[in-house]
Automatic annotation (TrEMBL):
Family: Belongs to the glycosyltransferase 2 family.
N-terminal signal peptide: none
InterPro entries xref list: DPM1-like (IPR039528), Glyco_trans_2-like (IPR001173), Nucleotide-diphossugar_trans (IPR029044)
Name this polypeptide is given: Dolichyl-phosphate beta-D-mannosyltransferase
GO molecular function: dolichyl-phosphate beta-D-mannosyltransferase activity
UniProt entry keywords in alphabetical sequence: Glycosyltransferase, Transferase
Species lineage: Bacteria, Pseudomonadati, Bacteroidota, Flavobacteriia, Flavobacteriales
Length: 243
């Protein structure tokens, strides 16, 4: 059995899901994939079930009844992976904004290096983003700077969603106490790993905006991140933050 599991949340990713699955399985290292699908109207889950015939015992699917948010999708995936014998559990998007080839670099940072958490970072060596308008680059870069300032974490890309966790990190974090469901979930997971003194390493990657399908970004997600971070840090100062 592979020791590494890649969790890929999906909602209306029929244009990407087959390609991303086949790309991951073509890598030189063995990865298993868990798709967590939120009842995509475009029948993403049906395509995954079809591909399971081609990739038995290495491609898995969890279907949820509603669109419940990115954070809960990953928590569902984390718990699924922890119930099995995976030592390295990854977060990755379905839309090729994260290059599957970089999975091996994140894996090596944890398995051969000193990292407990390896982040595929857009900003650790400058700004490595392709196909985003300048306004969105500045919003994302500025958000990471803001979070770094508020939380005190020495992380350049605090909102990154391309990550490898060692098993013991996810075992130590109380996943039932995660508050955020949108992109602020990514900040909260890093903050909890930081408070627990785990070694966090940023691995430079190039982020390429999706060319197929639609972005799931919304004003509500941004608001959750901006105001949630302040509350999260405030509670941690007064020992009211549950890790």
């Amino acid at each position: 059995m592979a020791e590494a599991l890649v969790i890929i949340p999906t909602y209306n990713e029929i244009e990407n899901v087959e390609r991303i699955i086949k790309n991951v399985f073509s890598l030189q290292r063995d990865f298993h994939i868990l798709i967590v699908d939120d009842s995509s109207p475009d029948l993403t889950a049906a395509k995954v079930k079809e591909l399971q015939q081609e990739y038995p015992d290495i491609l898995f699917l969890v279907e949820r009844k509603d669109k419940l948010g990115l954070g809960t999708a990953y928590i569902t995936g984390f718990k699924w992976g922890l119930e099995r014998s995976y030592n390295y559990i990854f977060e990755m998007d379905a839309d090729f904004s994260h290059n599957p080839n970089d999975l091996i670099r994140l894996y090596n940072a944890c398995s051969k290096g000193t990292a407990d958490v390896a982040i595929g970072s857009r900003y650790v060596t400058g700004v490595n983003v392709v196909n985003w308008p300048m306004s969105r680059v500045l919003l994302s870069w500025g958000a990471s700077k803001y979070v770094r300032f508020i939380t005190g974490m020495d992380i350049h890309d605090t909102t990154a969603g391309f990550i490898c966790y060692k098993r013991e990190v996810l075992e130590k974090i109380n996943l039932d106490k995660i508050k955020f469901v949108g992109y602020a979930f990514q900040i909260e997971m890093k903050f909890k790993a930081y408070l627990l003194k785990f070694k966090i390493k940023e691995v430079p990657v190039i982020f390429t905006d999706r060319t197929r399908g639609n972005s799931k970004m919304s004003k509500g997600i941004i608001s959750e991140a901006v105001f949630g971070v302040i509350k999260m840090k405030f509670n941690s100062l007064f020992n009211r933050y549950e890790i």
